[in-house]
Queue: 4 jobs
Job 1
Amino acid sequence: MLLPVYLIELGFAPFEVGVLATASLLGSALLTVGAGLLGARYDHRQLLLAAASLMIATGAAFAVVHDYALLLVVAFAGTINPSAGSVSVFVPLEHAALSGAAAPAARTAMFARYSLVGALAAAAGALAAASPEVLAAAGVERLTAVKLMFVLYAALGAAGGVLYARIPRRAPAATGPPRRSAPRGAS
């Protein structure tokens, strides 16, 4: 929700804002599909750390880049989400990591807690979206206040990276067709 405000503050036309938001959603969707395809073959911890690094880079880039073409590339390749929905590379990776971390009988309770924390984080993010207005009322230039939100986004990516680094490494799943066992009596 902050992205369109930022782009308009930079002076971009509504059509340009729409194109950039669309590129962001398309890039997020492709990144999420890619995570789904790679998630079973690679260590979830490494993929989550890579996603957190991309989040840091995205936040930092949005805080300093003003050129439309570069912003378009950052929006497409980054992790920024211009909508209130959960279109994120993190969700399928976190789900995969969590499903293997709990016994089957405990998974429902674990995912309930995960959903609760996600909803509370979304609520905190919605509340934080008012921060630029509060900072502007306190005398901070509005564009600077919005840029600080992207710095905060990068900092949250760093915090996520610290948490993801605590996930135990997992051996990648074997690729290829499953091996068949020899029929009984065959040698």
Note: Helices lie at 2-9, 14-38, 44-64, 68-77, 90-99, 107-128, 131-137, 142-164.
Job 2
Amino acid sequence: MLSIRYLFKKRKKEQDNGIRFVYVDETDSTNRFCFNNLDEASIGQGGSVRMVVVSTDYQSAGRGQGSNSWESERGQNLLFSIYCHPTWVPVRMQFILSECIALAIRDALSMFVDDIAIKWPNDIYYQDRKICGILIENRLSGGRIKDCVIGVGVNVNQRKFHSDAPNPVSLCEIVGHEVDRQQLLNDIVKRFDEYIEMSRRGHYGAIAGTYASCLYRSHGFYPYRDCDGAFEAAIVEVEDDGRLILRDREGAIREYMFKEVEFVIDPQPPLQKGGAARADGEEKP
């Protein structure tokens, strides 16, 4: 393990609220960096540091869910991981962490443009295009969450995508100009801290309700595909454990865990900028 003192000498920034920022020029994965170089004892310092945010300009092996990779040009996007210890969250309720980070990112991006939604379980979409991916990895102990590392990739200033990802979009493409990545990072982390504090106080229902109201395709019937084939359904709810509940055209209820159902989306949906874009970080009227 690298010296924690050495890490925090690399362009560190510590806020008064117990959040510490660490920047590294390049790494294979910010999630892996956290697990390999940080632990509760080394960052806690008697409880003064509640979470560490590790960001980088380039990931050589950035990951998405499962075996998916994440494409990002050097220095163009937000690539970061949040390392924290939400020990108050029971294992059966760990999906609340996914809801917290998804809402934080959705809220921050909504300061720039409308039509930002959360695609279950935690992708962030602008209309029918993916602007952000999230990978959460928890280490458990005694029925509680010991360590939580939340990896985030937000497409910010990249204008062209070269991988076979079907529907990427960046904030720059939407609003028509580059965006300050550090300002956006600070806003996301601030909002996540607020949501995680709500969870610490036990306000799970309020978080889940807000998450449900921000879901992509939350109203009406849309095409899906599972192991039995294609069908149309409407979202009913998302359970506390993260299960997606759908109702198909025949009225049958279908339940799915992660990776068990696919949203059927046009692989090259048109980008409709419209008049929704606002100046950097401008609050909605």
Note: The CA atoms of residues 14 and 20 lie 4 Å apart.
Job 3
Amino acid sequence: MTAQRDGDAGGGAAVELQGVTVGFVSRRVLTGVTLRVPRGGRLGIIGPAAGGKSVLLKVIAGLLRPDAGAVRVLGHDLAAAREREVAAVRRRVGMLFQNYALFDFLSVGDNVAFPLVHGGAPPEGIEARVAARLRGVGLAGSERKLPSELSGGMKKRVGIARATVARPELALYDEPTAGLDPVTTSKIYDLLRADQAETGGTCVVVSSDVAAVAGFADTIAMLHDGRVRWVGPAAALFDADDPLVRSFARGEEREGAAVLARAVAIEPPGAGVWS
């Protein structure tokens, strides 16, 4: 487990969100989100499309400040912190973006090295660290390739290598297996498990592949309409008492659509929020 650093006092949690609200122009994306992720834990976030999952990851990463609420990450309140403090926390967080966010004009090696170069790592050790990280994700010898030469699964692995090359205390993964076949999906989650076992870090994963993320995470949170509809042990997800959560998790589209329609029609603001 990574040792606590300055500002981490009382830190049994890597992430603590309390009443987080985010809106863009006239649309509210997150409303009153309250979640806690213990250090060394694995949180999976699921929910319908456009429900605020990716926005929530950006809030945790310190890339987006909420309109209201507290965001405590690795012992620091990012909602109240100055930019210099937020930037220091970001260097302890790794993030895989949904669309890979690889730089097309940089080689694979330079993409993976980016967090090290811009995080102040000693230049003489960067090449070896990049090579080791690519070897760890099954892409040894690919340093000189360009992203355009890679398959979707390979790009995902490069993204994971870049997100984890600095051995972050907190790793955030946005749709790490979207569009991948079941075999590649299984390999990606095996890789995430191996990384966490080695570093003792904390993982938060957003995924549309409910079964796969439930097999990886120890806790699942479901976002619906920008609110936390359900949070609990991954093992309890498919038999959740809430019919909306249960039908969504099981992929029962007809029942799920009907329940969602009723929820939209009759739920008052804030209903169904778990804190």
Note: The longest strand covers residues 13-24.
Job 4
Amino acid sequence: MNTPSHAILNLALLSQASNSEASLIVVFGGILPDIPIFLFYGWAKFMTKLPEQKIWSEAYYQPIIQNLVATFHSIPLAMFGWGIGYFYNWESLQLLCLSLILHSLFDLPVHHDDAHRHFFPVSHYRFISPLSYWDIKHHGRVVAFVELVAVLIATVWMFPWVDSGIGKGLMVLVNGLYGWGYFRFYFRFYFRVQKINKTPSKAEFAEHEGAIDPN
């Protein structure tokens, strides 16, 4: 699932458990698991100048990167953090960890080739879903549309409750970019690629877009 979707959907689902001051914690927990991936991409792309194909086919799968990503996407570790927060009555930590858990639960059913180890370090098991949030070989066009609609509904639901003008503006921006990106990627781009009978890889999509949301 795309990173902004995690922030908006988590905020909608945890809104009854949070107030306006806690909303930032929910949003931060929604995007935190993906931050190491963005930092890795920035380092690989702009500092080491690696090509997209090598970034996502080789560098991303180095053990140190995979262990870092698995740590931030770990459901057991997030549950452990929630337990600490509960024991010490630290509501902010509990809310953060709940948002982390939701992030992983949303990712579980929509990652195929790029599945995370959500049960690390208890297990190295990866759930290889038949669905993908981006890859049309695994129903990516349908999954992306469902994600787009879910984010739109969550935005409409949460909009009156968001006090910040910046927050409202970001929500509108995300929905606008999703609509534009869906048309650009799943229609114009793929129709052009299909002329040469080839399905684009995630790295090729990144080259086309100039950046990629790898989560």
Note: DSSP finds ten helices and no strands in the chain.
